[in-house]
Batch of 2 targets.
Target 1
Amino acid sequence: MFKRIGILGGGQLAMMMTQAAHKLGHRVFILDPTEGCPASIVGAIHHVGSFRDSTTIRTFVAETKIDVLTWDIESVNADTLIELKEEGNVDVHPDPRLLKTIQNKWDQKYMLHANGFEKSTNQVWSVDMIKDNTTYILKTKYGGYDGKGVWRIDTIEEMNQIIKESGLPRKQFYCEEYIDHICEFAIQICLHNSKIVGIYPLVHTVQDPEYGICLETHTFPDKLEEPLEYSDFRKIENEAVKICKLLAKLMSDYTGNTYTGILSVEFFLTMEDKLLINELSPRVHNSGHYTIEGCLVSQFESHINLITDPDFYGNINTQLIHPEKDTVMVNILGGREYDENIPTESGVYMHWYHKNKKNGDTYKLNRKIGHYTYEREPSMERQYIYVIMGSSSDLPQMQPCIDLIKRFGVSCHIDVISAHRTPDLMFEFAHNVQKWGGKVVIAAAGGAAHLPGMVASITNLPVIGVPIETNALGGQDSLYSIVQMPDGIPVATVGIGKSKNAAILAFKILGRFDIIQELKEYNKYKVSRQREDVSMMFNE
């Protein structure tokens, strides 16, 4: 069913939601005070007016006869949206009760702390509770974004001066614990009635150190700040997904199973490798712009599909189109030299927001005026071979494989994943291993021997099965299970316990013919030594 969609705010997020909605056949109406705002440029029907004024919002809803109402900016009138949702004449998504809490960053932090996330986010204090000569982050409770309304302070005197110069009431400020962090990440969750129906890939966000604004996002970071290596990125993403699942439960408890739409989450990674929630955003987000070209379904299409379909079922395909590459999104910011930095080769996708210039000739400093995306081959060494087994008891027979891979310096990752005891973990691994940089999977098959076949049925990567010799049936059951895979789901198979051959086959798949040649020369050398020994024993 095609819907009439209302959006409060007409900025770049509304612009891209409008483009997605039109692609899906919906009509879009926007309420924004600025003539010629970005969404109006791409065909949204523009009603000029304040999205903070209750009467204006109600008039907008009545005149447009919209079916569903959403927003692209958090500073809308949440109280009016709550009233409209309770009255039931128009659907309002996401749940405006959460929006009202999140609008106040102090309340947002307290909501997280009160619902079991005290270890997943930093501490907060009233400005009258902080200690002198201690580092804090001073924030305004309302309206801060892109580094605005945020100050690093070290003394109470410094804080008082900032508050005085702002002209805002003292009660509009609070302090957060200063987190000495390695880097920042972000993720988008797709929720329908507070149930997760999709999670987009975790992205590494590169922030401007002076202004705190996002400069770039990376889906396959090849350079994470020290002391991180790429192998850590997989662990970080796994932890982020776990937090997302807990947030979905919070949405269910907090809103009564009514949260529908995108929920964006920003994270800090501390120096102790701990992932902390920085902020939540109940809307599509700048850190998800890469999804337009980078994913099978963009965050904007997902949001529109979720809020327009009350009977939505199934999952949203949030997969990257090219998981082996780094999809890069770069924000174009006003007041900066950007023309010479934009790649000129094919495959660069430009998005201009058509914003009005300040005084007609220049853009306000750091105002987001556009972005572009492109793909690149990561330059770092990745986890080319993944070696997995259902139990650590398989390790003695897999050790020759692991030793050979490491002997030649080929990047690998070893893990214990059981097809029977941890099926969710197995599915997660098989679904993501290509994105994590894998090129070949070597899977041990012991006992019921389902691990290689199940992984092969999900991933697009080649899978090599190693039958493990067992006391029960000597490994023959494992061998037969692997070699009898149905058509369309092949698993390469080596002899029972022959894990070293699995490593050699993986080298061939990777095209490491230098290693294969060295192994051949070594085998020739072994045979020649054996011939000499035999000759000395029997030939005079």
Note: The mean pLDDT is 89.
Target 2
Amino acid sequence: MQGTVSDSPVLIVGAGPTGLVLGIELARRGVPFHLIDRLEEPLGWDRAIFIKSRSLEVLAGLGLADAFLQRGRRVHGIDLYSEAAKVADFRFAGLDTPFPYILSIPENETEGILNARLEQLGGGVERGVEFIGLEQSDSGVRVRLRSHGAGERELDASWVVGTDGFHSPVREAVDDAFDGRDYRRLWGVMDAGISGWRHPREITCVQLQPPIVIPFPLGDDLWRIYFRADSDNPDVVFALGERLAVVSPGARLQSPDAPRFFHAHSRVARRYRTGRVLIAGDAAHVSNPIEGHGMNVGIQDAHNLGWKLALAVSGKAAPALVDSYEAERRPIAQAIVDSGDAAEARTLDSASDARQELIAFLSTAEGREFAALAESELGFGYDQSPIVTEFGAEPAPSGRGTKIGHRVGDVAGLVGQHGTLRLHELIAVPDHTLLWMLGEAATAKVEQALSHLKAATERRPGLRAHVVVRTAPASGLFPNGLLCDPDGGLHDRLAADGASMCLIRPDGHLGFRCQPPSFDTLDTYLHRVFADR
């Protein structure tokens, strides 16, 4: 089914951050799509504000790092309180990423930045259009849509992706189960100023002792305050001020807006794919907001799915490639949902022992490192994916190099034909990046490798290939495709002790490593990703 080129567009239903990132991923690869949303206008306010380190890496790869960093506020760590006593803390400074912090930015501003990027690429959102239903065949999907004021129409799509939220009509149209549960207790959220706050704004103070209160900075003067509530009584504002004053004596709320209340959920869809219909973001999973993962996991769903769907639409995907989306992303959603359930259990009045165990763990170096990595979402990988493979060499020892299936961290100081660059700049392309690591290699061997790589990329469109050496050419001139790794950071990053081949996927994850290099082995692997030509 994936081996056939389709002239029909992909239909994306839902223009939140997940749908917008998916649209950007398709647009940058020239894949036709329609992105619809039932709302006439974007929401002017939404409760999500956290962008984690891994999502910032994704957004940087789309050329959006500066736009987000200029608009958001960086949070460098978390302090945990039990009533007035600080009992634990952790910081993000030691994380292996160009973005060792959480970025605080309202979701409506996130959507505005993504929308502008989509329009730069020639795309856009068709608003006021509601998904009604679908019928699918082996070759496509016929979708019924209703436009506000214009009645119903049909659209033929090559694929349909539901990024349409918790109550996803797309998920319901394919009768997909949404397993899990709903939390009984309410969450509340409110924007306000806080006078007399004694703590640095770049450190978030979490009140662990129930009822939970978590103030997050928004810009220079405003805070978004999350809290647990037993009811939706607006009088909770007074109690909320008292709870903040426990953490910071003398703190007072200034000009609070009306609190908004919502129920949280813990659910994962049973299937991410039904024929030519896929789901992502909140349509596929919802988790406890106490850990702030929801929007981020959706952005990363879209980042994972976009390049695979683009290959499928163009007829270049191996039969199992789109299936790997569920195989890779669903276990991560399940892990996050399970973590949220555990966090929820610790918020109960009766869970004092569990809270003390958490505090004891976070008082250790191991616990602080674990917490920072979990918050950043940098540690998630696709170890068990059907499309990641290591050949020849033993897996990299724990703590050294990149594990197969995991995202590749950044490396500075690489030198190429156009000057110095970072690894994340090199791989921020719509294609796979093949690196032939040669270490200290003779000139003749380098020239031979460059010749082989040129032939390989001509044979296999969709690959960008580079020979990587430790020592720059004596002439100081770099032929096309040659990179110098003078500090050895890239060789260490990829655990390339000897000559090896490493293939980095378009989503920045290490998909293939082979030591010693072998084009036959590479071709065997590529058959898992690309259709036979």
Note: The chain has a mean pLDDT of 92.
